Amino acid sequence: MRSFRAGTALAAASLLLTALCAGQAPAAGVPGRADVDAATAERLDEAVTAAMKKAGIPGVTVGLWFDGRGSYERSFGTADTATGAPMKTDLFTRIGSVTKTFTVTALLQLVDDGRLRLDDPVSRHLDGVPGGDRITVRQLAEMRSGLFDYTQDTKWLATLRADPTRSWTPRELLGIAFRHPAQFPPGARWQYSNTNTVLLGLLVEKMSGQDLSSYLRAHVLDPVGLDDTALPKGAEIPSPYAHGYTDFTPDGKVADASRWNPSWAWAAGAMTSTLDDLHTWVPALTGGKLPDGSRLLEPGTQAQRMRMLPTGHRGVGYGLGIAEIDGWVGHNGELPGYETIAARLPQEGAVLVVIVNSDVDGDFGNLSTLIGHEVTTIATPDHRWTLPAAAQPDATPDPVPPRS
Prior knowledge:
Helices cover 31% and strands 16% of the residues. By secondary structure, it is α+β, with helices and mostly antiparallel strands. It has a single domain (13-90, 97-391), classed as Beta-lactamase (3-Layer(aba) Sandwich), CATH 3.40.710. Strands 1, 2, 3, 4, 9, 10, 11, 12, 13 and 14 form a 10-stranded antiparallel beta sheet that branches. A two-stranded antiparallel sheet has the order 5-8. A two-stranded antiparallel sheet has the order 6-7. Strand 6 and strand 7 form a beta hairpin. It is globular.
């Protein structure tokens, strides 16, 4: 079963990033730039390439930024194994469950507009949800509804594995989930379920009168300045993009999943983005403000989003569509072919973005966590991006079918 994968903080940055040099050239053959000190940049380059070799990762992009104290933006390896095209920092990618941060932002804007309340029962706005008179909108966003995660349905998994290009509607996905009994009473505990976020996407559509993609474009993406981020209608991904590689196939052989249809993830994990856009998004997400300083959300609503509740796993908290582990605030994502980390440590003014064009985890666990751990071990050794082992048994971070 997939685990909730998040990381730790970035508090020790000043130890390694105090000596800056403007416009430092990247290492030979490594696309990107860095203005952290040369020794740190070299260590990061070596650590990332070594981890890629160890785990057989085709391509990686890393962005690490400290407000006023330097940055590191690099790409490594191959974006397309068929042509040998290199990974680059400007390529589009699929971001998996980082999508949840956008969907919940849209929901919270509608709360600010007075169109619904977080403590409304789901049945007030959507019909057909089992126990919907007892499940609140807030519990959906907090992953405390008890609703079964449709991505754990074995029959559906076999169907998806056989035809990953098929288009799925949100109602089809909910129908799969609702065939299963609730896992626990609403609010009793935390359990990650993509069903929750699909319901939130439908709520946004009903209360706004717009399809989710259009609402996000008009009210979230354009105001934040995210021209290169989108919720696709089908399998489209803008060019140039990183090809994504997966072994979620009938025979277990690695395949190029970059043109597979992510409609089965929809509001929970189907969006595309870039390194630069994720770098812009994370401060807006965690601060509740637009780049010009105006409000993305009302301060009280943002405070509710950031109120982290325990998940039952040491050091891991979850708010409204957002996670915190030892100070890191944001989300990670994974779906066939792609893995992503997008997080911020507010007290250090630090942002970390990791993009990996493979989910063939093998013996090394989540690949983005592997890279994130290597980067933070060097840049912030007291606060390393590490998946708590206790988080592995019963939580999934995004809509990735577990391997059978």
